[in-house]
Amino acid sequence: MRQDLAGVTEVPLLPDPADMTAADLVGFATEASVSELDRESRLWLATRPGEDAARELLTVAAAGGSAERMGAFDVASRIGADAEMVWREYLDDPVLRAYAKLALNNIAQRDPAADPLPGLAMEPEDAACLLGDMVAIMPEETDGDELAAMLNQAVPAGQEAEIIELMAVSGHPAAEPALTALGR
User: Fold this and answer.
1) CA separation, residue 137 to residues 34, 105, 178, 180, 182 (Å)
2) Dist. CA 46–CA 179, nearest whole Å
3) Which residues of the chain have a pLDDT value below 50?
4) Model-level pTM?
5) Cβ neighbours for 143, distance < 8 A, ≥ 6 positions apart
6) For 122, which DSSP code?
7) Cα distances (angstroms) measured from residue 139 to each of 18, 57, 175, 181
8) Rounded to whole angstroms, how far apart are CA atoms 21 and 33?
9) Calpha distance 91→71 (Å, rounded)
């Protein structure tokens, strides 16, 4: 309906930014284009303190699935240093630890692979969690070559078997769907 009316009027997909919840924005992130998400994120983040916004987003991420974790990470990463304390609270969360490490290294303008902050290096377990989420949100019709290319880009050469093994024993909520996709 929105597309049919696009030439006539603009149909808003979301509530006013001040009334929008983090869950609304994260849900939108799973379907929006990059430019739409950028616009809505800026508007939403302007309506609340950064630390509060980060806490709301990471609460949604912790309770959600792969798409919600990745969408919340995308928006929360835009907050910057105001979100640092909240990211640190999630370093002990097995599902969000890898995202927290990435965010904290990004805030410090450090490369998490080559020059991480002390204690915030990306471990194989972290790579397994991130890879699990990335694979789990890929469309089912993704072909094997595309999936293999993504795997080769995301996992250091020679560590594929170790990462997949870690994913299998991790208990991470995205492990099963990701392994099923990799098996296909």
Assistant:
1) 16, 24, 8, 12, 12
2) 39
3) 11
4) 0.83
5) none
6) P
7) 32, 24, 16, 9
8) 19
9) 18
